[in-house]
Amino acid sequence: MQFFAFLFVCEEFQCSCGGPLSLFCATLLSFSCLSDHHSGKFLKIRKLSFKLSAHLSLSLAVAQDRLRLCMKRKSKLFLCPALALHYLCKLQQCVWLLRKTKMMSDNLRYTPFSTFLNRYFAFKVQKISVDAGFTCPNRDGTLGVGGCTYCNNRTFNPGYCREMPSVTRQLEEGKIFFARKYPEMKYLAYFQAYTNTYAELQRLRDLYEEALSVPDVVGLVIGTRPDCMPDELLHYLAELHRRSFVLVEYGVESALDRTLQRICRGHTFACSEEAIRRTADAGIPVGAHMILGLPGESREEIVAQADVMSQLPINTLKLHQLQLIRGTRMAREYAESPSDFHLYEAGEYAELVVDYLERLRSDIVVERFASQSPADLLIAPAWGLKNHEFTEWVKRSLRQRNTYQGRLYVSR
Ligand code: SF4
Q1: Domains of the chain by start residue, with CATH
Q2: How far is the CA of 138 from the centre of ligand 1 (A)?
Q3: At what angle do helices 346-359 and 387-400 cross, to 10 degrees?
Q4: Is the entire prediction scored with pTM above 0.85?
Q5: How far apart are CA 110 and CA 112, in angstroms?
Q6: CA of 149 to the centre of ligand 1 (A)
Q7: Distance from the CA of 123 to the center of ligand 1, in angstroms?
């Protein structure tokens, strides 16, 4: 396969021109293709090779035309600089394309969130966190009062939505915050804090429609618990998704019931599975959120959950490391019995993520690998890394291990 790929690319260039520049580019591109062959995703690289080939063919055709013209006119003086300039310009374009190929090949080792957004939007979109003043059945006494043992909702919200003004105001302030960097950006209202489907249908409709009425807001991302998705709401969201973008994100956290019980989630994994399937059946994109490293779960048990999640009809997945947050029950449990916990160091966690990715279905979009709680709330582990820095770490590990998402995935 590698050999054919090499031949394919070389032939593309050689038959169209046969010049040293094309051979040089073909060789470089071939190496790029060969090193990334194992990712199993040739398509985009091949598209780039076609583009590169087209550039070279065109440039050489033009160059040959000029050469003929110059020879006809016998203007030798003009010949060399014109050709040299033309080749230089084309070389610059080729280098740019090769760089892009390299960048893409890194991304091909896992399926990033941008590929998911690109399916729906032809422009850049950014999520803006919204706190719509919901509570949660695991806090208001319906299921419990203490909440999940790791939860402190203060970690959810960035500074611009702490005071909880109206949804519109939060979105407008979020837009100002992001538009400084990207003036052309469009936005998704991210209902993130607490349980964002935990209210009467009419109130939910009002809040969601308010968000969608804000200029440049092109869709909703709704974070919720799997036991808070009644059928009537699902029907409404399905209808909403037909006229705007809607992604429902469920906090699954673990596929092991004993862990869910230990962290006081108040629902089982079967409940998560059922909610995910019903949402997907309704035609709504669906995401899941998992915490890697919950107490009592061995490394093997964590990695095996990638197999379980791969059997579900999820579109997106968010992973994050277990973090101990001030003021939570889990923080107290840790203080009393630290040996019950294994808090992953960054390098060790990156390897765990790579193992997890290898077992994960390749079309599941991985939105993030880690999260970064505010320093004043975080007890441990304090890696001192930003999310994008950790993402680079995972990419590097994937490259070094020459592996990719789904390499060990087994369809059941
Ligand atoms: S993590 Fe979610 S479900 Fe659990 S207590 Fe916090 S808001 Fe409620």
Answers
A1: 2-107 (no CATH), 113-400 (3.20.20)
A2: 6
A3: 60
A4: no
A5: 6
A6: 9
A7: 33
